[in-house]
Specification:
The chain has one domain. The protein is built from two helices and no strands.
Length: 78
């Protein structure tokens, strides 16, 4: 497995982690921080905040999975 493949394969678990965390955040949104107009019938999503939360989960999960897969690749060769 080349380093490019490791980078691509690391995207999948990172996307899953960030998607699950955003799903949990939307379902347990007690303080309504994901909405621009809380309390109204049709809420507008605060996209900059939502993308910031998603990226704050995606980046560490990507770094962790990339490092883990890279170590597996390195130690498997020996």
């Amino acid at each position: 497995m080349k380093a490019k493949k490791v980078a691509v394969y690391s995207i999948i678990p990172a996307l899953l982690v960030s998607a699950v965390m955003l799903y949990v955040g939307f379902n347990h949104n007690a303080m309504e921080e994901f909405w621009l107009n809380p309390g109204e019938i049709e809420c507008i999503i605060d996209w900059p905040f939502t993308l910031g939360v998603g990226l704050s989960w995606f980046i560490p999960a990507y770094v962790f999975s990339f490092t883990l897969l890279l170590f597996i690749r390195i130690f498997r060769r020996k």
